[in-house]
Amino acid sequence: MTSKKEGFLVYFDEARLEQVLDKGSSGIPTTFSDALSIRDWSVGKVCVALLGFSESTIDYICLAKRGKTVVTAKQRVEFTSFVGLEGIQVSDITARLGAGIKSHFIRASSGVGGAFPTATWHSLIIALKELRPHIAAEIDRVLSLQRLSGVRLSGPSAEVALQEREAIGISLDIFSGGTGLREEVLSQWAPVETDVVLNADGETGTLKPADESSFLLGLPSRYIQEESALQHDLMNWQGATALHQLGGSTFNLGDRRLDVVYANRNSLETTMGVDLIYYNSIFDMFTLVQYKLMRDENGEMVYRQDSNIHAELDRMDQFYISTKVQSTASQHKHFRLNDDGFFFKFVPNRGIQAATGELVKGMYCSREYVRFLLGPGGPKGPQNGTRISFKGAPRYLTNSQFSDHVHGGWLGSRSDQSKAIFEMVQTHLSTGRAVVVSRETRR
Question: What gap in Å lies between CA 265 and CA 275, rounded to an integer?
Fold first, then answer.
């Protein structure tokens, strides 16, 4: 009886590192592929791989996905989601586990080999974390990415995480003007594995609440900031209330910078939902999105109005009136297709998944359109109750339509009043909702 196989280690020539290294990401390789023949590995399956780019070191841990056969007895293997190991010496590994472990190393030049037996692999992972304790959490995140890939998580905590994910993802699309940055970042998210309870089918599970469980904490540590200027402003603004959770991330593209901050005054169990406030200082514009979850009703995704939505619409009305600039636009950048800036996104709730960069295909609806949908002329169900669905609300914006128009400065309130933004944040936090604040500036 053969022992079960787990991850594997591949050695590449040092010149290969120069080819795949992303010069703008602190020594992290970009996604790349190679032709290898690794036994006992089915097409499409995701594994964890260790990579070395010299004879004496183990340099990265990452995900590897096997593709189709490309040459005789070899398959295309794609490597993604890298974490740098700071050149762990092979001699330090053999000192702990014995020289025999080197028999499992695969050389890319030959491209043939097998995975580690389970016990050996687990011992190797323990050794890596002991040698690099400050990145042990990042190693665990990659392992969680592999183990939870394709698993759909549900429950109240998953619902909050889903909304946070949508807010962060659309912020990245608006900022970048495309989907590449968002796909790169979101596809590397994974929850802490001990916060997940898997069901018997192994394909679904529940995400448990945790003391610190914002979506940002499941992203690679290189995206997380100790404290950005925006975080400082939110924490120290006069009259600001204490926050249960606060986390931030910063992204740079050319001469532009995006600061993303997650703020929550409530425990996860009492969080009512998530709002996004996107502020673009280049266009003197902010856009607010409130997320509402749709539920499956006989195969159709439907939103039934909750008890808070009319009060939330009233708050939007008040903010729109108080922050609207009354003067005539005097610069090109001030012209809009719609200067309202207040939207809802209705999100089909099918759970949240790790290791995917996609946004949920939902509906962005303006404040005024939602008032219509909830009013006498809006869509009704069989019992004449208010219900919002894809069929009943055809004048919605898709993810790409919304992000493109906000990116171009076409949708959003015309305001440069930073104080109004912070007042909005504090008001929404006081209603039991978490807030994702994204601020785009010139560097």
Answer: 13
CA atoms of 75 and 66, how far apart (whole Å): 7
For 45, the 3-state DSSP assignment is coil
10 Å CB burial of residue 64 (0-12, 13-18, 19+) is buried
pLDDT in tens, 83-138: 999 999 999 999 999 998 988 888 877 766 678 999 999 999 999 999 999 999 99
Lookup: tokens for 1: 């009886």
- 376-424 per-position pLDDT tens digit: 999 988 888 899 999 999 999 999 999 999 999 999 887 655 556 667 7
Which is nearest to 9 in space by CA: 115, 139, 89, 152?
A: 115
- DSSP state string for 142-196: HHHHHHHBT-EEESHHHHHHHHHHHHHHHHHHHHHTSSHHHHHHHTT----GGGE
Q: Kindly write down the DSSP assignment for every residue of 232-299, as one continuous string.
A: HHHHHSTTPPP-SEEEEEEEEETTEEEEEEEEESS-GGG--EEEEEEEETTTTEEEEEEEEEEEEETT
Q: Which residues contact 46 (CB under 8 A, 6 or more apart)?
A: 63, 64, 65, 145, 146, 149, 355
Tally Cβ neighbours within 10 Å of residue 130. Answer: 11
Contact 301, 355 (CB under 8 A): no
Torsion sign over Cα 337, 287, 248, 187: negative
Q: Return the structure tokens found at 141.
A: 């995140």
Can you give the pTM of this predicted structure? 0.89
Do strands 106-107 and 8-11 pair parallel, antiparallel, or not at all (unpaired)? parallel
Angle at which helices 418-430 and 229-236 cross, to 10°? 70
Tell me how far apart the alpha carbons of residues 439 and 409 are, in angstroms, rounded to a whole number. 14
